[in-house]
Amino acid sequence: MTMTTNTATIFENISKAGAVSSTTLNGLPGMSSLEIAEITGKRHDHVLRDIRKMLNELERETPNLGAPQWVEASYQSSQSKLLPLTILDKELTFTLLSRYSFKLSNMIVKRWLELEGSGFERVSIQAAVVHLLEREKDNYRIAMRDIKAAARRLKAR
């Protein structure tokens, strides 16, 4: 099977997207319209248009404040202009991309699996503090052990 130039370019874009810092939505992985445009090779304004159309058809024109599935934001372009950006959750990302093509959908599923494997785990503040305290105790024990060993070496001289 030979890949077309377009397919090869899309695969390359997905590989590059793995190097892009991950986007979050309510502490969970999210995918931005800019990243979707980069991966699919579509113009960003067309991706935004498709997102608006999808949200309208799904009757989700306004974000749910309790557990948002999407948010509108902005980013600064290379010309220092603020441009619109939409961040989608997993469900809406899959819904949007399922209309593009099976190959693109499969590539996005693979990207989501990468995002989910990149350490996006909800951790309570209490658990994070306990973890940090345990790490500090370990560091303290190691430092004290090294100080005692250095003192013994000095006495042995």
Ends apart, CA distance between termini: 72 Å
Structural class: alpha+beta
The main sheet comes to: 4 strands, antiparallel
Shape: elongated
| Number of strand segments | 4
Report the total helices.
Answer: 6
Write down the secondary-structure element order.
HEEHHEEHHH
Average of pLDDT: 76
Helix content range: 55-70%
Name the poorly predicted regions: 1-21
Q: Please, how many domains?
A: 2
| Rg over alpha carbons | 23 Å
The main sheet orders its strands as 1-2-4-3
Q: What share of the residues does DSSP label as strand, in percent? A: 5-15%
Report what the structure shows:
The chain has 157 residues and is an alpha+beta fold. The chain folds into two domains: 5-120; 123-157. It has six helices and four strands; from the N terminus they run αββααββααα. It has helices at 5-17, 33-40, 44-57, 90-98, 102-116, 125-156; strands at residues 23-25, 28-32, 70-76, 82-88. It has a four-stranded antiparallel β-sheet with strand order 1-2-4-3. Strand 3 and strand 4 form a beta hairpin. The N and C termini lie far apart (72 Å). Mean pLDDT is 76; it is low at 1-21.
